Amino acid sequence: MDPKTLLQNFINGLSLGSLYALIAIGYTMVYGILRLINFAHGDIFMMAVYFALFFVTLAQLPWYLAAIFAIACAALLGFTVDRIAYKPIRSAPRISALITAIGVSFFLESLAVVVFSGIPRSFRTVFPQSLNEMIIIGGEMEVKYGREVIIGGIRFPVISLITLIVAAIALVFLWWFIFKTKVGMAMRAVSLDIQTTSLMGVNVDRVIGMTFALGSALAAIGGILWAIRYPQVWPYMGFIPGMKAFVAAVFGGIGSVPGAVLGGLILGITEVMMVGIMPSAAGYRDAFAFFILIIILSLKPSGLLGKQEAVKV
């Protein structure tokens, strides 16, 4: 692989990894507080894309307002899911919460099939077409057989650059929110000791609801960027990205926000590089993520930045 192709793949991998990181943060934030794997997280990702599609096509809103409203609706959906599905079983065994999470996932997927139908819909006309154009650094252009051909240079989609910028802004906002606001302080306190925090007068249920809302909003941002990158929407589109983001969260150390970001970036870069080095293995790129999960769970179950928890018996 020549240096230009290597850099091109690195940029694309970094962009893809940023999407995984945005989704993985939702998994790791919820787990950090409730010790719950929210398997419905990928379906909130999917619902956010449908919300954006609805606001543009039926409500006739500009694309930027549609994106904002879709993110807000996804945050509200995450908050509602916590209130209806998870809050009543706070004190139940973990297996009950896990089964509930799987049930919520199936419910959202089935709801999307009923409301939006199971037929894939195009997302290509929802956002400006310029987002899918190519950025060309260096190289020359010539016309060959009636088509423009780039000779040399580095090419990557505009959406890759936008994804990196949006992800960076979202992560900076998340850092500010967690470390500079009272709600963020409460989230950190609840993640350390939920019972003691409750005794100190913190409304734990409200904090948990805010955590679900914030994680869902980040998943919505990732979902909209994902749909621009891969412009097709269907009710099960959140499964594979959601599972890969879960792998990224485990890889980085589930419960650790920096770990989720690091795991997502490493997974995205490794996945794209693998396909670039071995194009014949492109059909196995999804399986590659789960292979990484098996290796990590075998060698370092706590992940790269995770901490081994002591179990009281």
TrEMBL record:
Keywords: Amino-acid transport, Cell inner membrane, Cell membrane, Membrane, Transmembrane, Transmembrane helix, Transport. This is Branched-chain amino acid ABC transporter permease. GO terms for biological process: D-alanine transmembrane transport; L-alanine transport; L-isoleucine import across plasma membrane. It is a multi-pass membrane protein. One of its GO terms (cellular component) is plasma membrane. It is found in: Cell membrane. CDD domains: TM_PBP1_LivH_like. The chain crosses the membrane at residues 6-27, 39-57, 63-85, 97-119, 154-178, 207-228, 287-306. PANTHER family: BRANCHED-CHAIN AMINO ACID TRANSPORT SYSTEM PERMEASE PROTEIN LIVH, HIGH-AFFINITY BRANCHED-CHAIN AMINO ACID TRANSPORT SYSTEM PERMEASE PROTEIN LIVH. It comes from Mesotoga infera. Belongs to the binding-protein-dependent transport system permease family. LivHM subfamily. InterPro entries: ABC_transp_permease (IPR001851), BCAA_transport_permease (IPR052157). Pfam families: BPD_transp_2 (PF02653). GO terms for molecular function: L-isoleucine transmembrane transporter activity; L-leucine transmembrane transporter activity; L-phenylalanine transmembrane transporter activity; L-valine transmembrane transporter activity.
